[in-house]
Amino acid sequence: MIPTLRRLAPLVLAGVALAACSRGPAPTETTPPFYQRLDFGGHAVDPVSSLSMINQYRTNNGAAPLVWDPALARIAQGQVDRMAAQGRVYSTEEAGLDRDLAGAGITYGSFLANFSAGYRTFAEAFSGWRESPKHNATMVDPRASRVGLATAYAPNSKYKIFWTLVVVEPR
């Protein structure tokens, strides 16, 4: 009996090692928030690290830092929740942000938004936005001073994760 166990021990250890590898990346305490995967349930974008990354980028591009606005974050959450429920990314024209802003009592001189999907981490979303001229213009708009950002998880959609970033120039 013991010789059989000795022969099986390496196989059992190899199986345990392979099982540990097959689970995919899991968030750890040492993973910065902007690299944590959001494409599975129960996770949300971290506003502090996200805003810090955007503001550093804005500063590097000659724009003043943005201030996190909880009301804009709620509007962004409503927008992204609707996109996730429909399983598609909105265009700015069809989003109805002007209606949402007015409904929340937010007056503005101008507003812009980035709508996207499929980016698993904030770092991926940020990089994608930076590489898109239209999305990049939203992030570095010198008129903007307030921001809201939100994500929504949709496990049955092809994208899994949806993103909305709203920036506003107050009136």
Descriptive overview:
The chain has helices at residues 2-22, 47-60, 70-86, 92-95, 97-103, 122-131, 133-140, and strands at residues 67-68, 108-117, 146-154, 160-170. The protein has a four-stranded mixed beta sheet with strand order 1-3-4-2, with helices on both faces. Helix 6 packs across helix 7. It is built from seven helices and four strands; from the N terminus they run H-H-E-H-H-H-E-H-H-E-E. The longest helix is centred in the N-terminal third of the chain and has 21 residues, at 2-22. Residues 1-6 and 8-27 have low confidence and may be disordered. With 171 residues, the chain is an alpha+beta fold.
Main β-sheet description: 4 strands, mixed
Alpha plus pi helix count: 7
Query: Can you tell me the overall shape?
Result: globular
- The proportion of strand residues reads 15-25%
Question: How would you write the strand order of the largest sheet?
Answer: 1-3-4-2
Order of helices and strands: HHEHHHEHHEE
Low-confidence stretches: 1-6, 8-27
- CA(first)-CA(last) distance: 82 Å
Based on DSSP secondary structure assignment, what is the total number of beta strands?
4
In angstroms, what is the radius of gyration? 21 Å
Kindly state the percentage of residues in helix: 40-55%
Which structural class is indicated by helix and strand composition?
A: alpha+beta
Mean pLDDT: 84
